[in-house]
Specification:
Its main location: nucleus. It is found in: Nucleus. One of its GO terms (cellular component) is nucleus. This is Ecdysone receptor. The chain has 343 residues and is mainly α. The chain folds into 2 domains: 61 residues, Erythroid Transcription Factor GATA-1, subunit A (Erythroid Transcription Factor GATA-1, Chain A); 250 residues, Retinoid X Receptor. Strands 3-4-5 form a 3-stranded antiparallel β-sheet. The N terminus is likely disordered.
Length: 343
């Protein structure tokens, strides 16, 4: 199990998949050099638009990468670089804060501002609303759970048993998605968004919230995942473990659900309102942590960094969906609609 940290260094010389220069590691999902890594990051963060002078068919190498930016950016995307892997401004600040705070000699560590030890009435109301929503809608009813396709005997390796196992997991996923839809309606400010933006936020965040919900069910001592029907999955899910490295209080877990919704969703039309929602929830979470856990100054940066891990899991999920289509697994209509998978 590899620990989190910088992109891994390569023991043998490897070539950048964009330009052929010596690669320094995996950046934004692709083996690449420092130059192409920086070029891709700058191009995406600045929303750069380039124009090829040579007809848009440049063969990319170490020479042409300096001559044609349009073809270089296109090659970055063709080989698999993902915009979703870039850190947001909030996540960059959190990462910088975490590094500075771990250095006792850092001026930033000593200059970290202190927040009021008391939450505002508005923030207290948000906390109460989210906790109430979590209690009431994030747990399917017993009747719904009983409708889930039963898990076949583990010794049964027939085609029918394989299909039943697939149906079992898709049934559980449908229950989770339905709960997320109901939970989203309880998020303060969500229903004031246009219907189109509500759908965008729901579609883009559903798998990340499902992962968070599954992570809540992980039993570290038993190394098991417990689902709504009480059946454990004995397989360790390392990525899900990493999302919750520490035991977080209920509100912090719930707020992570909300932050997944409102952070960095580029396809919404009302960016201003979504950004205001993000600001309100971040300030409330910060005040809550300061009030209940004043000694843990690094908790908020750690939480924000976990959003990056969730985005990476989302990217992997998209790849797995394509694999399922290739293997002719039938994905239920609700999940196909949420994840934009053609039937």
């Amino acid at each position: 199990k590899r620990k989190k940290g910088p992109a891994p260094r390569l023991t043998e010389p490897e070539l950048c998949r964009v330009c052929g220069d010596r690669a320094s590691g995996y950046h934004y999902n692709v083996l690449s050099c420092e130059g192409c890594k920086g070029f891709f990051r700058r191009s995406i963060t600045k929303n750069a638009v380039y124009k090829c002078k040579y007809g848009g068919k440049c063969e990319m190498d170490m020479y042409m990468r300096r001559k044609c930016q349009e073809c270089r950016l296109r090659k970055c995307r063709e080989v698999g670089m993902l915009e979703e892997c870039l850190l947001s401004e909030d996540q960059i600040k959190a990462k910088r804060l975490r590094r500075q705070s771990t250095d006792p000699a850092s001026p930033a560590a000593a200059a970290t501002p202190t927040l009021p030890a008391k939450m505002s009435p508005e923030q207290t109301e948000i906390v109460e609303q989210l906790l109430k929503a979590q209690r009431e809608v994030l747990h399917p009813s017993k009747e719904d759970v009983e409708k889930v396709t039963p898990w076949p005997n583990d010794s049964d390796q027939s085609k029918e048993a394989a299909e039943a196992r697939f149906s079992h997991f898709t049934d559980l996923t449908i229950l989770g998605v339905q709960a997320i839809v109901e939970f989203s309606k309880r998020i303060p400010g969500f229903l004031r968004l246009t219907r189109e933006d509500q759908i965008v936020l729901l579609k883009s965040s559903a798998i990340e919230i499902l992962v968070l919900d599954v992570a809540r069910r992980y039993d570290e001592k038993m190394d098991m995942l417990y689902f709504w029907n009480g059946l454990p999955d004995h397989h360790t899910v390392e990525k899900m473990q990493e999302v919750f490295l520490e035991t977080l209080q209920a509100y912090i877990k719930t707020t992570m659900f909300v932050l997944v919704y409102v952070c960095n969703r580029a396809d919404v039309s009302d960016h201003h309102t979504v950004e205001k929602m993000q600001e309100v929830f971040l300030e409330t979470l910060q005040a809550y942590i300061k009030t209940t856990m004043p000694s843990d100054r690094l908790l908020l940066p750690r939480i924000l960094m976990k959003l990056t891990d969730l985005r990476a899991i989302n990217n992997t999920h998209c790849e797995q969906l394509l694999a399922l289509k290739v293997e002719n697994h039938k994905i239920p209509p609700l999940l196909s609609e949420i994840w934009d998978v053609p039937q």
